[in-house]
Amino acid sequence: MITISLCMIVKNEENNLPRCLNSIKDLVDEIVIVDTGSTDKTVEIAQQFTERVFHFTWVNSFAKARNYAFSLATQEYILFLDADDVLLEEDRKKFKQLKETLDPAVDGVSMIYQTGFDQYGNVTLRYRRNRLTKREKKFQWIGDIHEYLDVRGFIINSDVAVTHKKEGKQESRGRNRSIFEEKLERGDVFTERDYFYYGNELREHGHYQKSIENYKKSLEIKEGWAEDKVFACIYMGDCYRLLENLDEERNSLLTSFHYGPPRAEAVSRLGYNFLQRQEYRTAIFWYDLATRLKPDPDQLSFSFPALSTWYPHLHMCVAYFRLGEYEKAYVHNEEARKYRPEDPSILHNKKMLEEKLGLQPS
Fold it and tell me: Does 129 lie in the same domain as 178?
């Protein structure tokens, strides 16, 4: 059986760190905690779980901090988690089995990252990350912000999921944006990935036109991950929609097809674009396609499950209702209700459509 070092970087995580470490402490052989400047009880809490607690002076680079943490590992493999991550019980069992059966020839293992949930327990955002890597390969983190672990060789995709639970402080957005702006002030050369993620930060802060400019710069660079380019087009479309430019939104969404096959994330948005234009048949076409575009469970890029499940069905309900086709509207509303059984909008639709169709309430 392989041995594992858990390597983490933390700062002011007294509320989250115990939950994280309690979910993993018995499944790893070593815990390495690198504190980057906590002013709360994070260090004291970390010391309750491990003697290997270190300090790193923060230099506005997540990659440098993570690489330092990785350099302190002594076991065969390195696992990384953030303090607000947790392994749920089912995934603890899967992780234990993975550890007991992993072929030592494997260089890296990707795991599912579940980063958002709605009030009904549905996953709203998921993607894969390379989580477990062979220490002797000395894989490095790259990027000051939105860093990634550059893993190569024999990589397998596991069914283990790490669940992200955002609780407590919410300082990352302003911090992330400031790191990008400091890079610009220094005259650093931006990569395709830098422009993409800086565009995301600007979009989340409501700077839509400036965000569009950065997405375009990302697309102009031929190098880079095709998945980032797909989502640069999708998110650029979001900016145009928020700027009330439906034509450019549609063009951006269609451009995403240049970089990869159609995704539900783009196709559902096309459905909404045509719904806003009151072109209901065309909207239904795109929404119906979205329900058929299930994400590849092995894809590393973002996946928003709602956009291939309840969301297109709910909007097809709206489109068919406006066309006067109430039976079809009811069918799609019921499909949406499978995922969100207590959603007030869906229950309202159900009651109204049952009245129109003369159905007994179910």
Answer: no
Digit-coded pLDDT (tens) for 96-140: 999 999 999 999 999 999 999 999 999 999 999 999 999 999 999
Quickly count: other Cβ atoms within 10 Å of residue 250's Cβ. 18
**pTM of the complete model beyond 0.85:** yes
Contact by Cβ (8 Å): 83, 18: no
Residue 359 carries which DSSP code?
P
- For the chain, how many structural domains are there in total? 2
Which of 113, 136, 164 represents a domain boundary (last residue)?
164
**Mean pLDDT along residues 189-207:** 96
Give the per-residue pLDDT at 228. 96
The answer to whether residues 264 and 322 belong to one domain is yes
Distance CA(293)–CA(29), nearest Å, equals 41
Q: How many degrees, rounded to 5, is the angle at CA 311 between CA 309 and CA 314? A: 110
Q: What is the mean pLDDT of residues 148-170?
A: 89
Query: Quick check: 244 pLDDT over 70?
Result: yes
The CATH code of the domain that includes 87 is 3.90.550.10
Q: For residue 112, which amino acid is it?
A: I
The neighbour count for residue 55, using CB atoms within 10 Å, is 12
**Is residue 152 domain-resident?**
yes
Q: Are 163 and 114 in contact (CB under 8 A)?
A: yes
Tell me, rounded to whole angstroms, the distance of Cα 110 from its chain centroid. Answer: 14
What is the 8-class DSSP label of residue 260?
A: S
Do both 317 and 225 map to the same domain? yes
CA atoms within 13 A on the CB side of 161: 15
Range of the domain at 288: 173-357
pLDDT in tens, 199-222: 999 999 999 999 999 999 999 999
User: For position 78, what pLDDT does the model report?
Assistant: 98
Q: Report which of 59, 54, 40, 41 is spatially closest to residue 5, judged by C-alpha positions.
A: 54
Tell me, yes or no, whether 362 lies in a domain: no
Q: Tokens for 319, please give them.
A: 């489109």
Asked whether the CA dihedral 343, 349, 351, 353 is positive or negative, the reply is: negative
